[in-house]
Design brief:
seven-stranded parallel beta sheet, alpha/beta, homodimer, 6 helices, globular, 7 strands
Chain lengths: 242, 242
């Protein structure tokens, strides 16, 4: 299925992030290094269990909103991946502020923008030397941004949800620019909607489970090419309008 | 051409904002009240000249990034427009941070998001009681958000320009949600690209002048209806893909 030598997944302590780690660990061949990040590694019980029994799994502390910590994080990742560089970055960490017009305010707008837009952009920028190293080794190199159909302007027929919607729409534009700017370096950019998934964020009325979402997303990421880089894709690879 | 009883234009001291004021002042019939806002009224020489010779023009101080001042601003506008309410809000004030990947940072991303996205959203929300008063009087009532084709993800073929592009893309999504949420109140939302205009922001290589841009935009705003509210429109009313 997936065939990336070295992978970083952010927000990997639960939900889709944790499922990414589970499926990458059991993929064949497994990645040489699989870096799972979260804000509080000591509290990430399920993640630590996986790391105990798989010596290619590294749990690193990362608060994606703490931009000042990125330089140090990149050094840690560089030490783990070595000459391979980084072949896949999954920008999965995100928050949802679903505020409607009556309670949207500058604070929830900016919080959601910082974590869902500025963080993946700045983390991608910080990890660029390691991504370039992978691409220079002629390995498939991908930045996969986990976005949401809630960010589709075309698909917005119910309004509201100002902070979350705008953050995902802005992430789509960031990702489009990245796909253009990183193309000369041989790095592809995936813009992927996970589906409406049964997680803490998705709630109990969701349509698919994490396993289905992530196995499809890994497939879509693995199949990414010059034609689908920078396109808005459903978890199963089908296009979504902006 | 335009037929709005009471109008607020933000960022009206220069460029497109000033041109909006000039053209609204000389429209037939002229609006009963035309409120031009800017950060420093005492330095807005051209605007003060217009206000001196037209007693329907009111220059009010407004820093669109100073959300805490909005309550007071709404009171001032309410005193000027009275029972008419506000029939047209032109969210024109904006900034451009055109940073590429090598110098984009959290500061320029968030600055551009605050002024170009959070400000028009919060100002619209603050002015909603006055806009509703106009709509309840059965008058055409419009929020016109001045966006940019640079915010079109579909049209992004050159990458870069992270802060500005994402801010305008996010503004488009905010505007789409507003168009849905304000529809039951009878308020229309315009999402309008001014063209590439010869202003300080547009630079010397622009394609059209302010007069052409604004006369077309006023026409497009005046013609806005239930079908074009919430659509991304060129200054001349032609549709633009998201």
């Amino acid at each position: 299925m997936a065939n990336f030598a070295s992978i970083v997944v952010t927000g990997a302590n639960r939900g889709l992030g944790l499922e990414f780690i589970k499926q990458f660990v059991s993929s064949s061949p497994p990645p040489k290094t699989l870096i799972a990040t979260c804000r509080n590694p000591s509290e990430a019980t399920a993640l630590q269990e996986i790391a105990k029994s798989a010596n290619n799994v590294h749990v690193l502390k990362l608060d994606v909103a703490d931009y000042a910590s990125f330089d140090n994080f990149v050094k840690e990742v560089g030490n783990v991946v070595g000459d391979d560089g980084l072949s896949l970055l999954v920008n999965n960490a995100g928050i949802m502020r679903g505020n409607k017009l009556d309670d949207v305010d500058p604070k929830n707008m900016i919080e959601n923008f910082e974590v869902n837009v500025v963080s993946p952009l700045m983390l991608t920028k910080a990890l660029l030397p390691l991504l370039q190293r992978s691409a220079q080794n002629k390995n498939k190199t991908v930045v996969a941004n986990i976005t949401s159909k809630m960010g589709s302007i075309d698909d917005n027929t119910s309004g509201g949800c100002y902070p979350y919607r705008t953050s995902k729409t802005a992430l789509n534009q960031v990702s489009k620019s990245l796909s253009i700017d990183l193309k000369p370096m041989g790095i592809l950019v995936g813009i992927i909607h996970p589906g409406w998934v049964l997680t803490d964020m998705g709630g109990p009325n969701a349509l698919i489970n994490s396993e289905t979402s992530v196995s499809n997303m890994i497939n879509t990421i693995s199949n990414l090419d010059a034609n689908t880089s920078g396109k808005f894709l459903n978890y199963d690879g089908k296009p979504i309008p902006w």
